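Appendix C. Worked example: Zuotin
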Amino acid sequence: MASVVTLPITLTATPAGYSKPSPSKPSAPKQLPIYPAGPSFISAARRQILQRSFADDDKAVLEAREREAEAKANASADGSQYPGLGEEEEPHTVLSSDPKEWKKQDHYAVLGLGHLRYTATDDHIKVAHRRKVLRHHPDKKASQTGHGTNDDSFFKCIQKAHETLTHPERRRQFDSIDWNINDEVPDFKKLSPEEFCTQANALFAREGRFSKIQPVPEFGDLNSPKKEVEDFYHFFYNFDSWRSFEWHDKEVNEGSDSRDDKRFTEKKNKSERTRRKKEDNIRLRELVDSVLALDPRIKRIKAEEKAAREAKKKGGAAGAPKQLSAAEKKKLEEQKKKEEEEKKAAEKKANEASKADREAAKKAKEAARKNLKKWKKAIATVIASSNYFQAEGTVASAQVIEKQLGELDALVELLEPEQVKDLKEKVEKAGNGAPVKAALQEKVAALGEKGAGKFTEFA
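Step 2, the predicted output written as structure tokens:
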């Protein structure tokens, strides 16, 4: 039986002016349409149409899934799924691939997917990898040769290819620089109109593989309507590409623990990626410009529009207004000329103002960048004077110092210049020790999701 224990605690009186918080008012109800959707609705509709009970429907769905899984397993086991995939003889150039130089190896060719490349599905990669492993496993090779050889170099290449192509981000990085895809641009000037459309279709289908927006509009043929032609060029002039160039990144020197070396290498890699991306965007735009200039459909569309204007002009000739006098024509021309001059003057003035604004913004940005280094250095000095927040009498280890300075770099990158300036003033005002760390922690907490998982020393 429970017993009641009275504790000798006296509660303090409520403060003067305290009032009980009032509950928030519920929002006004709204009428919203509800649409039937989702797997539950589909199941209910299936039961109603097929007149099944819950038990019968569950049993039928389970049997269908088992049949599908069994058929897939049988197809993989007997090789009937994608026959010949991953079973071809590899050329010597592929077999001699060095696993240490995995960035230079053709991952599609290693798995026998060289004929599919970026069109290969996840199932293709899975089946090809399984068959390659069965053929080239080191244990199997050792038993076949009859002696203790265990050359697993190509097997490591297979595993690296599978690891790369099953990772969505790494596969995109490899597809972005795939050197075995023929990206040669034909000489459109020497092609007939029919060949022009055929070659352009193939060319832009390859370029379209990098588009974030799918499906990509096709180039079309000689009879494509004006709307389709305009939509095609509008799409490629505003092309949103996911192509990136991280694959060309240089690795940090092996064995180097220098934070400066790592930062310098990362900076160089980022600069090189930006340069390659800019060049690729320019290349695509110039390609679209050259195709547009030679597109035979543009001539056809212009001829059709001209014929339509002439027909309209002839049709309205009967009801045309009377001819203007020479004085009236001159007056209209002068008015038109004046409007054009005013328009040009306004555009020139706007361009000059815009240029001045850009220059001012650029100078302000450069000044902020210069000050940013000073502010960060000042914060680092305060942290150092606080002995990196270690107990009095102890010396901060190199690991702790590097970690705190690294987190300071990350914090400065996530903050705006004005916020960095504010942080610098706060830590200088705090002096040293715990108040300084509290100011840093407060700034990290204010980042919210932006700083999630990036800070431990200042968390």
